[in-house]
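Lesson 9: reading folded outputs for more than one chain in a single document. The general rule is that every protein is listed as its sequence immediately followed by its structure tokens, and records are never interleaved. Here is the first one.
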Amino acid sequence: MRVTGIIAEYNPFHNGHKYLIDQARKNGAEAVVAVMSGNFVQRGDTAIISKFLRTKQALECGVDLVVELPTYWAMATAQKFSEGAIEILENIGIDTLIFGSESGCIERIIKTSYCIRSTEFKAYMREQLDLGFAPAKARETAVERLCGNGELLRSPNDTLAVEYISAAKSLNSKMKFVAVNRQGVSHDSTIANGEFSSASAIRELILSGKVERASKYMPEKAYQIIKTAADDGKISDLKILETTILSALRTTSKEDYKVLPDISEGIENRLFSAARIGRNLPELLEYAATKRYTNARLRRLVLSAFLKENKNEIPEKVPYIRVLGCNVVGAEVLKVARVNSKIPVIMRSTALKGNPTFEFDVKATDIYSLSQINPDPCGEEFTNGVIVKKD
């Protein structure tokens, strides 16, 4: 069986995601496996609907198997996010990774991935940082100097693609890579193009109560799931947690900030000070901001502090593969994966009791639920089993 992997957040699932799955099928995929972020996502936010509902969307719209990228990796830097996702897909046994791309040029993306793994790149990067450039700019300049592809790193999908391939090469993976031109609109565009819209624009429609207007940009089955979620009060909005987050950060010590992942260059001091004067999250982020720290990085750190992450407790590698949902074809992929995977493939959440990575996800999900108008009691990680699509 030819198995193609996709790394996604599906936040929420839209026509662009369906297009990528269709391209995977055209490329010969007999099974499509998605490794999907949990309830907190890389931009430093809650997912618009729970990972269980997004799993249903994916299965209804062409994915055969959905597995989870744990919070430690889902809410991390592009490098760590990619390393976790690629390790999971490698253990599942995919032969091809397909992804959206602004450039659509796989040769340039591969060349850039080799560049960022070189000794020369690290030296140039350090040189630029010492000159006072922000990490993103230092990275772009170093790549431009070495291979002339610096502008690729200005595009979010191409940047992730570079990290995906770099992570795969570090594992000596034999997976192939397919870049598909992103359709319709750019990553965070607020302007739709025909039936395509960015996930951020769709989220804005949903959060502003205009759920029906989002239907144009989503497959019908995916739309019906999110419409039901909206009717049931299961849409997540980080603003609901805003006061709780501010309260948590105001009582976080400098020492606790120092053990957050991705802390460097004294950013903990800025966060500590900003948390004590910011009256809302945008104001806190404004006080903490400098040209060296992207807004997404600061948002991730704010949520990391809120969830009490500790970098010393995060494993170097993903310790297990948790299955969120599958259909008949996905079940066949799982049969092989459970034999060949070097890390456990877990079908029952009770099997993960006591695992620190899973216990952190349990806590994150219990907190995530409070970001909904109609929250659930604690324990949703155990009351939701593997979602099976039988037809």
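And here is the second record, again sequence then tokens.
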Amino acid sequence: MVRLPDYLKRGIIDTEKTKTVRHILKSHCLNTVCEAARCPNKSECYSKNTATFLIMGNNCTRNCRFCNITCAKPQQLNPNEPFEVAKAVKELGLSYVVITSVTRDDLLDGGANHFANVIYEIKKLSDDIKIEVLTPDFQGDKNAIDTVIKANPDVFNHNIETVPSLYKKARPQANYERSLDFLYYIKCNSDILTKTGLMVGLGETKDELIQTFEDLAKIKCDIVTIGQYIAPTKEHLEVAKYYEPKEYDELSVIAKKIGIKHTFFSPLTRSSYKAYEVFNKD
């Protein structure tokens, strides 16, 4: 097993601010992907009074081999969750909110209406609050995508996660072309910014990454993020390679030449990491 480089190690930050964030989340019985996915940036984000909300429970109906979120029987949807998220947003004083979820293939709409309800409740607080959603693929259901589009988030994110050749190994219940079609459908049917993210270090080649950039440029995806895959446990996929920081800069140059407008590539980049800064990037 390859050792974790020092530049990927993050210390634990425990301050009154991080404790306040945890208290607010707990008081509203809310989950975060920061906790569920063991995000290395959790302490940093909490110290900045922010978090990424994980809605529709914390059990996923898919079993992606890179993810720390539990694959177990999903919980019933909490109809009060949209209100609780909005209350937490207000208490945290957030001006930019990121909402993601587990995949809920057990629901007829994949949870699209629940996403929309969360957006509507947050918008009741203020029209100035920007909202980014990171959704599953809803099994390609266009009606479900339309439901979220109608709620009009500022950024609609759906992660393709990796290159096509690694789907069978890393996310066997997903489909690369379906995810591309998902993002292209949003672009063709709204003015909402589209965003996607990939992990590197799973065994992909540089040529495969370049081909993926070309695929994303063809569907006019606005924002692309890339970060290093870090195995959550020994039971998950092993890391094939740790990319050096300079390699992210090189990949960013390539992606922009191909036609990707906005890139955010770095070792510890995650889909929602510094999302507000990425959104406001020229």
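What the second record shows: The radius of gyration is 18 Å.
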